Amino acid sequence: MIFIVGNSRSGTTLLGRMLDNHSNVRTFEELHFFEQMVDSKTIRERPNWPLDKRRQVIERLLTSADDNVFAKVKPGHFTAEAEEILNETRAPDIVSAYATMLDRITRRSGKTVPCEQTPRYLYVAEEILEAFPDAVMVCMVRDPRAVLASQKNKWRRYRIARDRMPLFWALRAWVNYHPKTMALMWASASRRARQLQKHPRAIVIQYEKLLSDPRSQLKAICELAGIEFEEEMIQVALIGSSTAVDKPDQLGVDASRVDAWRNGSLTPSELAICEATTAKEMAYWGYTPVARPMTAPVRVFHTVGFMVKSGTALLLNVRRFKNLRETIKRRLA
């Protein structure tokens, strides 16, 4: 099993599509199982869940796997398959049922290695690797300024994506964005990535290197996962950008995305906030600062905006986490 994690908008989806092109790997849509449906304690202890509760969760996961995380569960649509999965699962805990579901769908597609690509799993990486002793984990890291530029325009996927983002999700993406918030989140993810790279079953891949030299990066991942590199892995569709229309008929790696943030999508003050907040972590990964210091009035303006947007974002995201207190604590660590 392969898990792809990292800060949001760091290339996890791109890597997932590359791995899905492998003859033995089946990449799933973002399932948001860990952290949203189960917390770290549940992952570690695997308590018994009532049958109805397990069935509801599996139906939600099957819906996301079949369509995407935006899709609503259709009553009864996956009930029979969920029951079959639960019957196949030897243990009465939801983590085991999740693993059975991944394996079942992967085998049905004619492949053998399931790949889950939900970025937030980075914050429960240790628990996941302990729960799945045969799994490996790939953590993506990307220039924080590129991440901010992508996050800033993420809500626009509501208009330009093939599978349109629901309006509420677009609104939440817009509210979630503030340069200070995104920079703090990136720095937090970077610290987690630095810890994770010490694990023998984990590897950290920088987005820029994946685009400039995809073969060597993919070969390193394949070696860790115990599979052979295949040239077809590089032939991915050009989709998923926050600023460009999807081009599913064009295949390959678009190396120009590395410096796309330099096209003016970020204001000078956004660049300054980002670099000041992430300076230590940027230096570790070799990202060079370019911004000039902000003036006092601009700093005050962004501070007020940060306070307002942070409070609103918390209200809009509170249901996305099983244990909000634990979630905040792990991101502040």
Q: Any idea what the radius of gyration is?
A: 20 Å
CATH architecture assignment: 3-Layer(aba) Sandwich
Count up the helices.
15
Helix vs. strand class: alpha/beta
**Topology as a string of helices (H) and strands (E):** EHEHHHHEHEHHHHEHHEEHHH
The total strand number stands at 7
The tally of structural domains comes to 1
Q: First CA to last CA: what distance?
A: 27 Å
Task: Explain the overall architecture.
Helices cover 51% and strands 9% of the residues. It is of the alpha/beta class. It has a single domain (2-332), classed as 3-Layer(aba) Sandwich (Rossmann fold), CATH 3.40.50. A five-stranded parallel β-sheet has the order 2-3-1-4-5, with helices on both faces. A two-stranded antiparallel ribbon has the order 6-7. α3 (51-66) packs parallel to α5 (94-108) and α7 (144-152) crosses α10. The protein is globular, with a radius of gyration of 20 Å.
